[in-house]
Specification:
The protein has 103 residues and is mainly α. It contains six helices and no strands.
């Protein structure tokens, strides 16, 4: 069974596991299925807005798909979420990507 299949099997048991959903979204990115990846990232952030790691990957996906304005919005949301949970690493990563995009 491939990685996507294994993760999907795991998610049948724990469908709201953010780590597994995030891993699945990244696998879809690797497979070139940005639509499915985007759905998973957005679902994670809808359910758990403090899950800071998904903001970066969702915004990068949007950048690749020429949705710059939306990417900027997600970077900003991610920086705020990271600040609220005290995740300085995620904040700095999001801020750097944000600044690279807008400057």
């Amino acid at each position: 069974m491939d990685r996507i299949g294994k993760i999907l099997e795991f998610l049948k048991v724990t469908p709201k596991d953010n780590l597994m959903r995030h891993a699945l979204a990244l696998e879809y990115v690797k497979a070139g299925d940005d639509a499915k990846a985007r759905d998973y990232f957005e679902d994670i952030l809808s359910d758990s807005p403090d899950y800071a790691g998904s903001y970066y990957h969702l915004a990068k996906l949007l950048e690749r798909n020429d949705e710059t304005d939306l990417a900027v919005q997600w970077y900003k949301r991610g920086m705020e979420a990271a600040r609220q949970v005290g995740d300085n690493h995620a904040y700095n990563e999001l801020q750097s990507a944000y600044e690279d995009l807008i400057y």
